Amino acid sequence: MKYCFLSLFQNLFHWNGSSSPRNTGESQYAGSDNVVGPEAMERFCRDMGVEPENVSVIMLVLAWHLEAAHMGFFTEDEWLRGMTALQCDCMERLKGKLDDLRGELSDSAAFRNIYRYAFDFARVSLGNSGFLTPGPYF
Prior knowledge:
Its main location: cytoplasm. There is one protein chain. By secondary structure, the chain is mostly helical. It has a single domain (2-103), classed as Recoverin, domain 1 (Orthogonal Bundle), CATH 1.10.238. Helix content is 57%, strand content 3%. The chain is built from six helices and two strands; from the N terminus they run H-E-H-H-E-H-H-H. The protein has helices spanning 2-13, 38-48, 55-66, 76-86, 91-103, 108-126; strands at 35-36, 74-75. Strands 1-2 form a two-stranded antiparallel ribbon. Helix 2 (38-48) packs across helix 3. The chain is globular.
């Protein structure tokens, strides 16, 4: 099980297997700032076999579960904490949860929470100007 978790982590952050799980600068998905952005997450979803029309849905529900501070951007800590909470220690388990993640939008309580999460991001991004402003990772 530990190997699976490390494998999932390495897939996203390309950890070199040392005792300190830090980005080696050669990440398949994470940038040099150890953050996985929207384009990398889209690629990650495609690599997992997520249909193109479902990528944004999966990304939104994952962002909510990972408690991402910035929409579409995932830090190493958010990823580790969220995958632990989802009990996904390998790619196969995460793939197995994709239908459940999509299905959460059919649950009224989960939908309300996800909607509120997305709405709060939009409200903060729009600010007082009514226009979207770039987040801290732009």
